[in-house]
Specification:
alpha+beta, Aminopeptidase, 5-stranded antiparallel β-sheet, 3-stranded antiparallel β-sheet, 6 helices, 8 strands, N-acetyltransferase
């Protein structure tokens, strides 16, 4: 599975590979990344990364996570989708690659993939209060903030903290793409 974006021709999404485990682990255990994610403690091991990839990489149905690859085979982040009571996306990018439009391009392609293949009524994303860049990104992609709550603590945070909830209805996405 590969998605290319017109303004970043070498950028694509692909299935995770076991060889991505080291880079995956290195990114999510960085405090500036890991504290924005729920599931990855600072001591998350290479073996745990390999197990997650082995479990989710071959999936064509949710939940799944795709690698962000800048064209050289190196994992620089991921985007993921979970179906359930709400249809949610989650994502992260290596800080060395932030601020270059990579995540915006990847999420735009990923959102189109999700809406066209799985047809949820809307997509949801939750963002910690101290991640203004992610909130701005979601707004640029058409998500609207629908609320906030103090909730589940990240594996790299000491206490539960405020999360902002964003929603993107499929109709809003498709109208904006015309």
């Amino acid at each position: 599975m590969s998605i290319r974006h017109a303004t970043l021709p070498d950028l694509h999404l692909r299935r995770l590979r076991l060889s991505d485990a080291g880079a995956f682990r290195a990114i999510v255990t960085r405090p500036e990344v890991g504290r924005m994610l729920l599931a990855f403690p600072a001591d998350w091991t290479l073996e745990q990364a390999q197990a997650l990839i082995a479990k989710t990489a071959p999936r064509d149905v949710p939940p799944f996570r795709l690698a962000i690859d800048a064209g050289n085979g190196e994992l620089i982040g991921t985007v993921g989708y979970v179906q359930g009571k709400t249809d949610e996306i989650a994502y992260f990018l290596d800080p060395a690659h932030q601020g270059q439009g990579i995540m915006r391009a990847c999420l735009a392609g990923f959102i189109e993939l999700i809406f066209s293949h799985f047809a949820p009524e809307s997509l949801r994303a939750e963002v910690y209060h101290d991640n203004p860049a992610s909130m701005a990104l979601l707004r640029r992609l058409g998500f609207g903030e629908t609320g906030s709550y103090v909730g589940t603590c990240s594996a790299q945070r000491a206490e539960p903290e405020c999360l902002h909830v964003f929603d993107l209805p499929r109709a809003v996405w498709h109208a904006a793409q015309r």
